[in-house]
Amino acid sequence: MIKDNVGKDLTRVCLPVYFNEPISSLQKCFEDLEYSYLLDRAYEHGKSGNGLLRALNVAAFAVSGYASTEGRHCKPFNPLLGETYEADFPEKGIRFFSEKVSHHPTVIACHCEGKGWKFWGDTNLRSKFWGRSIQVEPVGVLTLEFDDGEVFQWSKVTSTIYNIILGKLYCDHHGVMQIRGNRQYSCTLKFKEQSILERNPHQVNGFVEDLSGKKAATVFGKWDDSLYYVAGDGVSKTKVSDPSSNASLLWKRTKPPHNVTRYNLTSFAITLNELTPGLQEILPPTDSRLRPDQRHLENGEYEKANLEKQRLERRQRMSRQLQESGWRPRWFEKQGESETFKYTGGYWEARGHRNWDDCPDIFGEFKEELVDSA
Ligand SMILES: CC(C)CCC[C@@H](C)[C@H]1CC[C@H]2[C@@H]3CC=C4C[C@@H](O)CC[C@]4(C)[C@H]3CC[C@]12C
Prior knowledge:
Layout: H1 2-5, E1 20-24, H2 25-31, H3 37-47, H4 51-64, E2 75-77, E3 84-89, E4 94-102, E5 107-114, E6 117-129, E7 134-139, E8 142-146, E9 151-154, E10 158-162, E11 170-181, E12 185-191, E13 203-210, E14 215-222, E15 226-231, H5 237-240, E16 248-252, H6 267-270, H7 277-282, H8 292-298, H9 302-316, H10 319-324, E17 332-333, E18 342-343, H11 347-353
Parallel strand pairs: 1-2
Antiparallel strand pairs: 3-4, 4-5, 5-6, 6-7, 6-8, 7-10, 8-9, 9-11, 10-11, 11-12, 12-13, 13-14, 14-15, 15-16, 17-18
Helix pairs in contact: 3-4, 8-9
Bound molecules: cholesterol.
Cholesterol is lined by residues 15, 19, 69, 72-76, 125, 136, 138, 156, 159, 161, 164, 169, 171.
Protein name: Oxysterol-binding protein
Pfam families: Oxysterol_BP (PF01237)
Function: May be involved in the transport of sterols.
């Protein structure tokens, strides 16, 4: 298996379903929004004139998206071309939508609307599998726009997955994240690379600076745990990295569920593939929740899952031709080659009318009842 896949792009590595988690990359993308309340807070702070606290909460949000990667060791499903995922969370005040917009290279685009903000972006994971470790470089810009016009943009840092063959598999994130704002504040965050002797892994350190380049606050914490800040220009480093000092908490990770599954999903992630009867009737035929192999895996039916996965992978090989002969994403569009895919609108309206006539039947043939009778 390894021999067949060395040097390949991670998204295109074909593995038996046993290595998968019952979540697609489209759904995984939504995991980054688990702590969306930080953006609601950021909006409120900015509205009441505190631009610094807005920038700090945006920084906390950008870090919080990594928390759910801790302890994970399974590969998400690579969605089919044109596959979509929606998440309607009225209790969080957010609506999220994503689509796989390109197969060669693999690109996923997403769009999310919250209370006072919009968040969108696309990612093309440039990854290489070299046998012992995999390095993932997300290419693409994430944009956060507040309703009052303030915009922040950043890109995700490099991730490395270690011990692919021997030892305990784990991932780490490292590099510098530059969160650029269009008004007064910008933020720089450094994700420290873990060394073998590291006693304090997963560290993130950084600062918020104003237009003149003056440090307005220092931030520190761990991407799998929490983030703190100290206002002002940082004083001495030792003092600042001690949470018992005068630091204030920006974000704290939710505790993992009591009865973890073999996938180590967070309580939030566990809900993302749920197919409630009411939902099944309104989803488009392209939604990840309707993907048969993923559903079988979630139900623990490995053999059925594997057969379906092979069938869908065979079908998917034709998607290169499809794309070359002018296939276009249904819900996203990009202006120029270097631009980000932008949501063209209309998904939630179509859902209101259950009008999915022009959605392709990407999963084909599968007719079995998907909802658990239990
Ligand atoms: C080869 C197989 C069996 C093992 C690897 C499985 C796990 C650990 C890998 C597969 C795909 C990986 C993800 C791919 C892309 C991203 C986006 C990046 O911005 C953060 C890390 C994150 C979210 C990775 C986390 C680790 C990951 C989930």
